[in-house]
Amino acid sequence: MKSAGSQTHFSVCGPQSVRWIGVCLLSLGILALSEVPATAQVTSVSQLSDVQPTDWAYQALQSLVERYGVIAGYPDGTFRGNRPLSRYEFAAALNTVLNRIEELGGAATLLTQEDLQTLQRLQQDYQVALDQVRSRLDDIDTRLLALENTRFSATTQLDGEAIMALTGGSENSTLVSRVRLNLLSSWQNRHLLVTQLQTGNNGGDSVGLVHAEGENFLGTRGLLADGGGLDYVGADSGVQLNRLYYSFQPLENLAISVGPRLVPRDFIDRNRFANHERLDFNSSFFINNPLIVQNQIDRNPGAGIAVNWRLNNTPFAVNALYIASDANSPTRGWFGDRYQGSVEVEYTPNSPLALRLQYTRANLDRTEVNAFGANVEWSFNRFFGAFGRFGIGTYEGYHSQLGRDLDLQPKSWAVGFSVRDFLIPGTAAGIALGQPFIERNLGNSTQTNFEVFYNLGLSDRLSITPSLILVNHADNQSQSGLTWQATLRTVILF
């Protein structure tokens, strides 16, 4: 219930409407808020900074102040008329109103006979409704007590997701599964501890196979970059701690996250149309720019810090992170190989359009990486949107896992479209095309990726998504030919 006002009101706030007395009682009840001590009683509505003459409850509040002197504000000079009241607060408010009525009982100039008649009429007319409300509140109390006795935690929200995908195509058919359990602990609005557990069947797919010389340069788990394939492959059968970090907001527009298990994709390179393997594209390449979100860091969470800062009264935001995947190693440590540092400047001049300019510096297996990227999204209307990601960078140095010196200047691009409510309400469809690693000194061709999907939500907790992924010249090898796979993805939320 909320305190409010109306333009039609009866005698306490003006003549005409019997219903208005309930609203007036709630307005009077602001006196008795127990959470924050009230200021001295105000003598004019103008003393309340968040009440304006244009507000629809203004006349009611003005009448309550001038005729009865029963309105008080908060210490900061606000009234907070839209703030919800708890049951205890309403009980205290009602008691205050009744006491005030008794005090005014003998003051004929203040409490008129019409007021008393209206209150009696209300008591009779709404007695049944009040009894029903009292019964429902008692039932809520009983159910709440039962929930408190059986709840998982007073401060932790528990949820999870299970992804199961049946694939078939150029290679053998496979079943890929991944299950995640999220524990979100929040004891204040600006403090959050994120813990994520993960397990799976270590399933693979056609695109993620080892190619050419026995080295997988470009794939979901590629040594150089993420070149695509199902994003959720490779989840080990044992239970893993996949994420563990603490986020807090020292300022309303500033969030800082720190912990031993962070991944870059949680903080940079976001996109409304291509960013989540359980909602849109299956291919890891279309979920993130492979030059900006480095595969070996994103697939191997590490210790780090991330900052998300939205500049006040501007369309700009700055996102930055530093993550070291081997921070627990005594030989590599916090600043040793492998690490990634990234900065992203986000520009959102309006809701449909967003542009992100990015820079990443990384050290991966003794190879230095410097990359610049751009991420753009544009929503034409509530049904149709487009996105694009572009990147250019350098890979220099001796790569210890490949056992060779690298001097590469790769480029990357991806474009796609998304359609909502296509043919069936509540659905989402998408199509995307791109090349993850354009570099003539790596292989003898350029890998090209394509995906189309159709997401059908059967309920809030269950969805199925058929998709088709095509990869030509996987690993930048012409002899790889065309690799294709059809996937039926099922997602269950719990």
From TrEMBL:
UniProt record similarity statement: Belongs to the OprB family.
One MF term in the entry's GO annotations: porin activity
Annotated transmembrane regions: none
Domain SLH: 44-108
Cited Pfam families: OprB, SLH
Record Gene3D superfamilies: Carbohydrate-selective porin OprB
One GO term (biological process): carbohydrate transport
Protein name: Porin
Gene source species: Desertifilum tharense IPPAS B-1220
GO cellular component: membrane
